[in-house]
Amino acid sequence: MINRRLFVFLVLGLALFSCSGDQESNESAASLSDGEINNSVLKAQIQNGLAAYPAWLAQWRPSIAVSPEGFELMRTDSIQDLTMPERNPILEDDPLYPYQFAHPEGNGRIDLYSSKVEARKNSKEAFFNPDSKVVWYREDGMKETLLFMGPSGMLEEGRWISSGEFLVLGSLQEENGYRPMVWLINLDEDRLYQYAYNQLSTDYDPTNYLAEKLRGLDLK
């Protein structure tokens, strides 16, 4: 009787262990699948964003031919809470107002250029400050800094791809050249996805795109 009970106990134990192993395998597979799906969605969003700015793509030629397929996820970060009371200083009569990005559901505007560009005295050409920022002036009167780049980074173009996601195009200076970059800011999850291109340009001018985009802009 004891041997029979021991046998039954061992059989049940092996069955439970097998079920537990299968469950862990299924959970791991599901997690991997979710990650792959998420990356696929992000890549599709990048493709749509790049398609809206052919001039940004063209500026990299002939050094490199930039395409959506060449961007790979470099890192994912949490967005730091850099929020403070401040209303949008760029009013409707400001020359930079049309260059801000209005929220698709009316929740303020994103500013990419006001801290980057300033007028030079006795010159019609814009002067570019070394640092770059993505700043969201929300409708509730709060200012939120979503992305900050030092002198090695250039933030050149942006686009709302949904009410909770903002796409930024730019470049990053490295030792051997300039790399095309895409930053996807997810406001709902407070996550920042950084995508780097798989090639470098050795003759890229990091101020050329903004100089051309803002040509003729009267900042005085």
Mean pLDDT reading = 83
Supply the number of helical segments: 3
Q: Uncertain runs with pLDDT below 50, 5 residues or more?
A: 1-35
Supply the helix-strand structural class: alpha+beta
Strand content is: 25-35%
Helix content: 25-40%
The count of β-strands is 12
CA-based gyration radius: 24 Å
User: Regarding quaternary structure, how should these chains be classified?
Assistant: single chain
How far apart, in Å, are the first and last alpha carbons? 97 Å
Largest sheet: 5 strands, antiparallel
How many domains would you count in the coordinates? 1
Task: State the order of secondary-structure elements, H for helix, E for strand.
Answer: HHEEEEEEEEEEEEH
Q: Order the strands across the largest sheet as they lie in space.
A: 1-12-11-10-9
| Shape descriptor | globular
Keywords: Signal
Protein name: Lipoprotein
Organism: Algoriphagus namhaensis
Structure description:
Helices cover 28% and strands 33% of the residues. The protein starts with a helix and ends in a 7-residue tail after the last helix. It is α+β, with helices and mostly antiparallel strands and 220 residues long. It contains 3 helices and 12 strands; from the N terminus they run H-H-E-E-E-E-E-E-E-E-E-E-E-E-H. The strands form 3 sheets. Strands 1-12-11-10-9 form a 5-stranded antiparallel beta sheet, with helices on one face. A 5-stranded antiparallel beta sheet has the order 2-8-7-4-3, with no helix packed on it. Strands 5-6 form a two-stranded antiparallel sheet. It has helices spanning 2-51, 54-58, 208-213; strands spanning 71-78, 83-85, 101-102, 109-111, 117-119, 126-128, 132-137, 142-149, 153-162, 165-174, 177-186, 191-197. It has one domain (39-213).
